[in-house]
Amino acid sequence: MAFLNVEIKAKCGNPEFIRDYLMDNHAEFKGLDHQTDTYFNVPNGRLKLREGNIENNLIFYERSNQAGPKDSHFNLVKVEDATGLKEVLTRSNGIKVIVEKHREIYYIGNVKFHIDEVPGLGSFVEIEAGNRFAEEMTQGQLKEQCDFYLEQFRVLPEDLIDVSYSDMLIEKISE
Prior knowledge:
alpha+beta, Hypothetical Protein Pfu-838710-001, 26% helix, 45% strand, eight-stranded antiparallel β-barrel
């Protein structure tokens, strides 16, 4: 089943401010996850295998590269045998790039928050207002939630990131 997120990614100069806001507003802290996202070559969209101590999923998503809230249509499959799946996908599709990160995961209702530290790239905050656990929510309502937290976190337009960590790493490697 495909789901919808309205999401943003932004540079985060003050992770402590975001963390304090989330805790002050009774966010549920899911934990700190060390994640390895292996992106595979695919003809359209993005396909990644996420391996972490909290989240282990195969994720296919389609999202435009634009700053600010954007729609992301995705399919997510829980993975039991990441090693075997990675071997098959590597042999069949080839690896595009690997992204390592340390991620704090929080929830307020249907909105998921990440505070990420990506070696070589820096600190980031992500907001994902999604309908995975709130199927009745419309795209407009999800965008309103995303916009609300953008304002609460005082994210400046120039801090918004329009691409994925994978794109950022590929660009850095080619410099």
